[in-house]
Write a structure and sequence with these properties.
Two copies of one chain form a homodimer. Chain A is α+β, with helices and mostly antiparallel strands. Chain A has a single domain, classed as Nuclear Transport Factor 2, Chain: A (Roll). Chain A contains three helices and six strands. In chain A, strands 2-1-6-5-4-3 form a six-stranded mixed beta sheet. In chain A, β1 and β2 form a beta hairpin. In chain A, α1 runs antiparallel to α2. Chain A is globular, with a radius of gyration of 17 Å. The termini of chain A are far apart. The interface between A and B is large, with 71 and 71 residues.
Chain lengths: 163, 163
Amino acid sequence: MTSLTDSERVALANTALYEAMEQGDHGAMSRLWLDDPDLEVSCVHPGWPVLRGRGEVLRSYALIMANTDYIQFFLTDVEVSVMSDTAMVTCTENILSGAPAEEEGQLGPLVGQLVVATNVFRRTEDGWKVWAHHGSPVLAERDDDAAAGDAEGPDDDPDQLLP
Amino acid sequence: MTSLTDSERVALANTALYEAMEQGDHGAMSRLWLDDPDLEVSCVHPGWPVLRGRGEVLRSYALIMANTDYIQFFLTDVEVSVMSDTAMVTCTENILSGAPAEEEGQLGPLVGQLVVATNVFRRTEDGWKVWAHHGSPVLAERDDDAAAGDAEGPDDDPDQLLP
């Protein structure tokens, strides 16, 4: 068995984060987040304010899991950078999800959502752990020429042009 | 003159990032971002997809500055964590901005905006530099009991409950 590179290990930890969500596995989610008394974790769900500390972050995931009957992530455009004991992952989350329906036993309508994420990991003795997650909605598609490295924003709408 | 702690230096670098925006100082913005051939920077403006690399990121700031006649940031809830050569800042950006008006020489209507940011810095010989910036709109206010550490999201709307 060949050993994995740091980047490969980080990519696997990143994938595991989304698999824990898909499976509603709160225990796995808890194990994936950094547990270090000297370093507070932070988390921003799309449209949410900042959550800080394991307690607050893990409670938010419990709430989201309780309100989500079905969720699937198709990750695209995943980029991993590793610098000594810190790693940065940026990726696009193509999300398909359904909340519980009004009628018991039924799944609510499925909703597609495009989110971009910045995920920061720290190397620990127990593998790479999430230090910070920040997800945000992509409010408009970029132009087709975006792939050519054009940095213009969504439709050049000044309302979308704030840092 | 007393020497500053790492956290204080990172907080100053974080403030400088917003001052460069307020002043439309693209040169200062360029100097604040990490310039390391081994480490690609990344940037997410609110509602935008991920931008990667100094060229794409700095072009986006030039575009934003060109479309913004007035912008002011009131930073609140600033938290800094430092772990060896990496630092994480989370903060709330209370933004007041105005785009150019239709009539020449006029300022467009001022718009308030609430954004949360995760900013990651690397220590360099030339001070702390931005490795990643991720800003996202806060789509709804939290309840008043949020200050008590309640992790519930905005109005418990399931549409806002995705990671």
